Amino acid sequence: MRSIELAAAEELNPLIPHTAEIIVGFIAFSLLYMVLRRAVVPRFEKAFAERTDAIQGGMERAEKAQIEAEAALKQYKAQLQDARGEAASIREEARVQGAAIIEEMRVKAQEEATRIAASAQAAIESERQAALTSLRNEVGTLATQLASKIVGEALDDQVRQSRIVDRFLEDLEKSK
Question: Which residues cross the membrane (predicted)?
Fold first, then answer.
């Protein structure tokens, strides 16, 4: 009975599998292992290899892009520096041209002012001479008329009139 109990106890123990189950499990595991090794593992390896290539290629492309970006940045900075230099030279040239134009306008204005002043001076001098001549003639006529009345005789002689007027004006100028 004990052996039956032992045999019954062994059969009833759920922790110990049956030998047939172990063999069937081993065969199923072996078949599954072979199918996975031949069909699935190469696909995984291929996917991993593609992914690795893609990552490495992406890294290489990123490095190339970074190098190109750095080169473009250097070129941009060089162009910017050239543009700044050119702008500075244009500003300097414009300043010089502006100063030259201002100086030219100043010289023209000075020449025009000098010309106007000389013209005005000449006009003033000619008007002064005309006024002086007119004044001499009027003063001479008035002086001659006055002298004729004082002396009581006519002083119609032009030469005499002219000497009297000149002498009168000289006396006037001396008295100033």
Answer: 15-36
